[in-house]
Amino acid sequence: MRALIQRVTQASVVIAGETVGQIGQGLLILLGVRQGDTTAEAEFLADKCLNLRIFEDAAGKMNLSLLDIEGEMLVVSQFTLYGDTRRGRRPSFIDAAPPETSEPLYEYFVERLACCGLPVATGRFGANMEIHLVNDGPVTILLEKEHEDASAQSSPGSK
User: Fewer beta carbons within 10 Å, N or C terminal of the chain?
Assistant: First the structure.
């Protein structure tokens, strides 16, 4: 599972001319679900998004989390985060989970974020969306949590 997070001063999602989600200061989170992902990956990334210290304190240092600043979140499903461009000129999305798997995990991720009590807005799963944002910094970070089987296979010393 991958989350591309952007620190924003504001962000919104528009579908067919209608604003369906918007936030002020906080995080725009583009979430990609990979085949084999489970709720464990969603929980890990939700915790990371909430607690990652990427907001500035009074001294201008990135020492504060989303929880510390009581920010807002806008979560958008983004299967193209698993686009493989190593070969050819057109991305392959073979690693992206199909909608029947990714939509429940996307919803679970949003629920995990909402448990903290901060505002969470969303796009609409599978819709063609326009994302409007003001990236603050700019700060953009890619978070990734591979499912346990994949990370165990690639760890040093494993055979």
Answer: C
Q: How far is CA 70 from the centre of its chain?
A: 18
Q: Collapse the DSSP code of 151 into the 3-class scheme (helix H, G, I; strand E, B; otherwise coil) and give the result.
A: helix
For 2-147, CATH number out of 3.40.50.720, 3.50.80.10, 3.30.2350.10, 3.40.50.300 equals 3.50.80.10
pLDDT in tens, 51-78: 999 999 999 999 999 999 999 999 999 9
Instruction: Please list the active-site residues.
Output: 78-80
Q: How far is CA 72 from CA 12, 13, 102, 144, in A?
A: 12, 14, 23, 21
